[in-house]
Design goal:
This protein has helices at residues 6-13, 86-91, 180-185, and strands at 21-28, 36-41, 46-48, 51-56, 58-60, 73-79, 99-106, 118-128, 132-138. The protein is mainly β and 208 residues long. It has 2 domains: 6-144, no CATH class; 146-208, no CATH class. Strand 3 and strand 4 (51-56) form a beta hairpin.
Length: 208
């Protein structure tokens, strides 16, 4: 059962608010550079959790359940007026197997932990037209999932720099190689997510 953060519950229940609900998406392409495109469904760019999301016109259709118990699917329609995605689709043969991570955020709750409210889909196909690119989305392909799901390493932290679990607020061009030494330089070593008690080298599998 997913937990709905208190800040979002309060924003959902108010009759009027100066904030707004926005879809933000990350499109992780399957190219050699592991390109990640970030967009927000708004008329202006949006900075969230230290990352800049470019303004764009897109929307999700309702999720569809396949008859017979198949995996649910939905579509993402992305404006093609400016040909934003067109070059990537042409280069990557429709960007099949790309991954889309979507989160509905509230502008008045920028520090809320949205980890349990994030949706992840694989791009199954893309159909471009003059005005729109329609991406057919499906459940993540289990054959592409990392196993084991958790890796315990002594010298490298497990979390992405700047995300909600890392807890560091990126204010400029700073970078992190996810080592304990770098965490200490940034004053964020209390949130270090490596396991310094482990011996470097080798592997451990934990069943839980």
């Amino acid at each position: 059962m997913k937990t709905f953060p208190t800040c979002l519950i309060q924003r959902k229940n108010v009759l009027a608010s100066s904030g707004s609900w926005l879809w933000v998406i990350e499109i992780a392409l399957n190219d050699v550079d592991e390109t990640i495109l970030r967009y927000v469904a708004d008329q202006k760019d949006f900075v969230w959790q230290g990352q800049k999301y470019l303004k764009a016109n897109f929307y999700f259709d309702d999720e569809q359940q396949e008859i017979g118990g198949g995996s649910p699917s939905r579509t993402l329609s992305f404006s093609n007026i400016r040909r934003t995605l067109q070059p990537y689709l042409e280069e990557l043969d429709g960007a099949a197997d790309a991954t889309i991570i979507a989160t509905l955020v509230n502008t008045e709750c920028p520090t809320t932990n949205y980890a349990e409210l994030t949706l992840e889909y694989d791009v199954l196909s893309a159909k471009p037209s003059v005005n729109w690119v329609t991406l057919e989305l499906g459940a993540p392909n289990l054959l592409r999932q990392v196993w084991p799901s958790e890796k315990y390493m002594a010298r490298v932290g497990r979390r992405r720099f700047g995300d909600c679990l890392c807890g560091y607020t990126i204010t400029g061009s700073e970078t992190c190689n996810r080592t304990l030494a770098r965490c200490r330089e940034l004053g964020n070593d209390t949130r270090y997510c490596g396991f310094v008690g482990l011996r470097p080298g080798g592997a451990r599998i934990v069943a839980r």
